[in-house]
Amino acid sequence: MSTDSRRRAAKLYYATRDGQSRHIAEHISRRLAASGIVATPQNLAAAPVSAAELAQASVVVLVAAVRYGRHLHEADRFLASYASLQSPPPLALASVNLTARKPAKATATGNGYLRKAIARHRLAPALAVAFAGRLDYPSYGWLDRQIIRFIMLLTRGPTDPSTCVEYTSWPAVDEFAARIAELPRGS
Ligand SMILES: Cc1cc2nc3c(=O)[nH]c(=O)nc-3n(C[C@H](O)[C@H](O)[C@H](O)COP(=O)(O)O)c2cc1C
User: Atom 1 (ligand 1): residue with closest C-alpha?
Assistant: First the structure.
């Protein structure tokens, strides 16, 4: 058996409602595959993950969307499980939200959602980044559309209800994946 095949697997999870976090997780998965790391994206809403499963991973990656000021509840539960581990594998955490469309709000310290999640669960992620998500007014229900338009008004973003923009910086996602590939992994 080669050293690589004896290695514990990298685990890649996502929490999404509108699909952008899944796209980002799939992109990361393809980039990791190009570095010889197999990590199949798993939807946390489809199957919750046990702390025991997480403990066996060499690296844990989470891509989690924000809605109404918080990461999706399945991502929050996941982080609570991860935080309960005695000796956790390295964590690479990516938050997906619209606030991160401003470069100063794309870092672990600059992005409030990421900063609060890290503090709430007392995490020490090896990597933490916020990616800008997607704004798609026509696909939102009336109330969600008005609320997001109001947030955009406050943060000087587009308020035209026909707007559909993907803000995600794919080069930034590539860089995140490259840094995951460089993380020391358990044997
Ligand atoms: C109902 C709703 C609430 C949202 N709340 C926030 C928010 O509080 N802060 C923020 O920065 N982005 C917010 N967003 C933007 C989403 O984070 C963004 O659209 C992201 O791409 C969603 O990820 P997903 O496609 O994986 O679900 C919200 C979007 C929707 C539709």
Answer: 144
| Residue 145 CA to ligand 1 centre (angstroms) | 11
The pLDDT of residue 186 is: 58
Q: pTM for this one?
A: 0.95
Q: Is the pLDDT of residue 7 over 50?
A: yes
Mean pLDDT of 39-49: 95
| pLDDT tens digits, one per residue of 83-96 | 999 999 999 999 99
Domain boundaries, the chain: 3-133+169-182, 134-167
What confidence tens digit (pLDDT) does each residue in 101-154 have?
Answer: 999 999 999 999 999 999 999 999 999 999 999 999 999 999 999 999 999 999
CATH number of the 3-133+169-182 domain: 3.40.50.360
List, in sequence order, the alpha helices (H) in 56-141: 73-83, 112-120
9 CA distance to ligand 1 centroid (A)? 30
Mutate-to-test residue for ligand 1 from 144, 148, 166, highest number of ligand atoms within 8 A of CB: 148
- Whether 2 contacts 179, CB under 8 Å: no
Pocket test for ligand 1, best of 14, 17, 27, 66 (most atoms within 8 A of CB): 66
